[in-house]
Amino acid sequence: MPIDFLLLFIAGLCGGALNSIAGGGTFITFPALLMAGVPPISANATNTFAVSAGYISGTWALKKELSNHKNALPVIVLFSLAGGVTGAWLLMQTPEQLFRQAIPWLLLFATLLFIFGDSINRFFAQLDLKHRHASVIAKALSILMLLSVATYGGFFNAGLGIVILSYLAMAGYNNINEMNAIKLLVSSLVSLIAIVIFILDGAIAWYEGSIVLLGSLSGGYLAAHYSRKLQQAHVRLTVIIISLLITTYYFYQELVMHG
Q: 10-residue block means of pLDDT along the chain (259 residues)?
């Protein structure tokens, strides 16, 4: 069995399991694609393809929760697609070298979001309670933020779920199941439309991406059976340590290359 196949499948397996339990699977799958020799922009596009199945299946599983927000769905769908297209298009216009230099900073941003995501969400939820009457401005800002969140997701998928949850908290949502349903819907729409752009540009490494996708689906399925027995705090701490180590490695690599 080729070493790259094994590396990518195990990365997908671990990433899918982490996404199913606590999130943060991209910190495993994206670096694995880079290690397998996939160029940075292609690795990012391929990673979006590889994780999309989990978003779609999760959205379908929570379709009942989505039905409680039928009136808001057209706006969510429209701006999720618009942002996903914009982010993917921006990625395709970014020079490979520039994106390579941005990787440590993008990983650091996603890592900080993962670490402080709950605190950020609580802050926005409290902010919303204090400013419920500023409806017109709040709605305009909410749409603008959704567009920005979706654009980020189209450009770089890591940390997208946490960014979306922060947006939803700011927008006044407070039911965690409904928030998760909308999070998965936005993630699905952003990923699917971005994948279309990536396919048109020939940016997806199908062989490597399919291996990660297969591993991710297997990992997510297996983790669903054992997730109740695992301590979420321990899994979360593991993800934080892994993400910090990987981020530090890419900062070091960039320093060596340009030092």
A: 85 82 78 92 94 82 82 90 96 91 85 76 63 60 87 87 78 78 90 95 95 88 67 73 83 74
Domain span at 58: 3-258
In degrees rounded to 5, what are phi and psi of residue 116? -105, 10
Q: How many domains does the chain have?
A: 1
**Measured between alpha carbons, how far is 160 from 182 in angstroms, rounded to an integer?**
12
Report the C-alpha gap between 213 and 233 in whole angstroms: 26
> Could you tell me if 108 and 244 are in contact, meaning their C-beta atoms sit under 8 angstroms apart?
no
